[in-house]
Write a structure and sequence with these properties.
Blueprint: E1 18-21, E2 24-27, E3 30-31, H1 32-38, H2 41-50, H3 56-68, H4 74-82, H5 90-103, H6 113-138, H7 152-161, H8 167-180, H9 187-196, H10 202-213, H11 221-232, H12 238-247, H13 267-280, H14 285-301, H15 307-317, H16 325-346
Bound molecules: acetyl coenzyme *A and oxaloacetate ion.
GO biological process, one term: tricarboxylic acid cycle
Catalytic activity: oxaloacetate + acetyl-CoA + H2O = citrate + CoA + H(+)
Pfam families: Citrate_synt
């Protein structure tokens, strides 16, 4: 047996959703740079689920479906109020809430493509309401119900704060959602596909994916980046802090990638946004520190920043709590997870790799009373 640790380089499926070829990321063949510049998140959701950009009517129909399904059952809100709110991480709350939501979906166990698509709409529509509601409840505030007249991006920021976001915040948040929507067979998407390849249901697949995204080597890195920036505190401290970490063989969060060798094409968009937003909020030091960290890590380790690095200062500038950064990633990646789950069902085969056994062999069973 040849063991490929971490499945590096292993091609486990075919897919028509997104591609990473020669460090270029596309969704259904559209370059991420074009989508980041021009597309709304709703268009991207349509693209990932239908493998074509929507025309005006198709986009309106999807936008309407998302708006009409954004309300969440009162039971979720009541459930949140029972959590030990001062201890629960919002990703744990989201993971639990999505699983809980499935209990109230009458079609949860239905396995036909039409029912699965309807569940996809409901999950995408409700995920931002869930994250915003949890954020408010833990602050002792009542949830703000979703509005049907706002874009997906604006509606989330509105539900979080109770105020309509200004156009700059809406545009920045929309761009972040577009950039995070899908990424081929990343760990959380693979998890979702492994789960539903047993012919388990959509809610199980999404719950599993949220669990995988939560870790700091994957989606959890954006929160970890902000923690690091906060610990560093000033531009003057950057050099010592980063060199100490590297000398101790510790990882610098937001750097490196399993697939990209010459840099993550999403990072430059977030870097530009970070520069603009940190200036606007009067906190340019977050951007300046980030640039300095990038210079050091790139020159000493040859590791460029990934999508999580500059997203941290972007979300901070939008006034978002640091532990909501990864749930925001989940709001966007929900679209990619669902596209992959539907694709997995279309042409399913159980995913079951092998392990090379390296433990002891030919052991003799000793009865309990005779064991030392
Ligand atoms: C949305 C996303 O999921 S993007 C990724 C988000 N995760 C992070 O930012 C966490 C920090 N980065 C990392 O941990 C890694 O780069 C990963 C997990 C993204 C990719 O990991 P892998 O492909 O498995 O690389 P691996 O962890 O084996 O690292 C290879 C070498 O580069 C080093 N390295 C990799 N990333 C970093 C980093 N961020 N800081 C310092 N050194 C690093 C490792 O220490 C290792 O060095 P060694 O060969 O001397 O032991
Ligand atoms: O693809 C990966 O391994 C991680 C990543 O960048 C993502 O999920 O966006």
């Amino acid at each position: 047996m040849t063991v490929t640790r971490g499945l590096e380089g292993v091609v486990a499926t075919t897919s028509t959703i997104s591609s990473i070829i020669d460090d270029t990321l596309t969704y259904v063949g559209y370059n991420i740079d074009d989508l980041a510049e021009h597309a709304t998140f709703e268009e991207v959701v349509y693209l990932l689920w239908h493998r074509k950009l929507p025309n005006k009517e198709e986009l309106e129909a999807l936008t309407k479906q998302l708006a009409e399904n954004a309300d969440i059952p009162q039971q979720i809100i009541d459930h949140f109020k029972m959590y030990p709110l001062d201890k629960v991480h919002p990703m744990a709350a989201l993971r639990t809430a999505i699983s809980f939501l499935g209990l109230y979906d009458e079609e949860a166990e239905a396995m036909n493509p039409e029912a699965n698509y309807r569940k996809a709409i409901r999950l995408q529509a409700k995920v931002s309401t869930i994250v915003a509601a949890f954020s408010r409840i833990r602050k002792g505030l009542e949830p703000v119900p979703p509005r049907k007249d706002l874009s997906f991006a604006a509606n989330f920021l509105y539900m979080l704060t109770g105020k309509e976001p200004d156009p700059i915040a809406e545009e920045a948040f929309n761009k972040a959602l577009v950039l995070h929507a899908d990424h081929e067979l990343n760990a959380s998407t693979f998890t979702a596909r492994v789960c539903v390849a047993t012919l388990s249901d959509v809610y199980s697949g999404i719950t599993a994916a949220i669990g995988a995204l939560k870790g700091p080597l994957h989606g959890g890195a954006n929160e970890a980046v902000m923690k690091m920036l906060t610990e560093i505190g000033t531009l003057q401290n950057v050099e010592t802090y980063i060199h100490n970490k590297l000398n101790n063989k510790e990882k610098i969060m937001g750097f490196g990638h399993r697939v990209y060798r010459h840099g993550d094409p999403r990072a430059k968009h977030l870097k530009k946004m970070s520069e603009k937003l940190t200036k606007l909020t009067g906190e340019p030091h977050w951007y300046d520190m980030s640039v300095k960290i990038e210079e050091i890590v790139t020159s000493t380790k040859g590791l460029p920043p990934n999508v999580d690095f500059y997203s941290a200062s972007v979300y901070h500038s939008l006034g978002i709590d640091h532990d909501l950064f990864t749930p925001i990633f989940a709001i966007s990646r929900m679209s990619g997870w669902l596209a992959h789950i539907l694709e997995q069902y279309e042409n399913n085969r159980l995913i079951r790799p092998r392990a090379e056994y390296t433990g002891p062999m030919r052991q003799v069973y000793v009865p309990l009373e005779e064991r030392a």
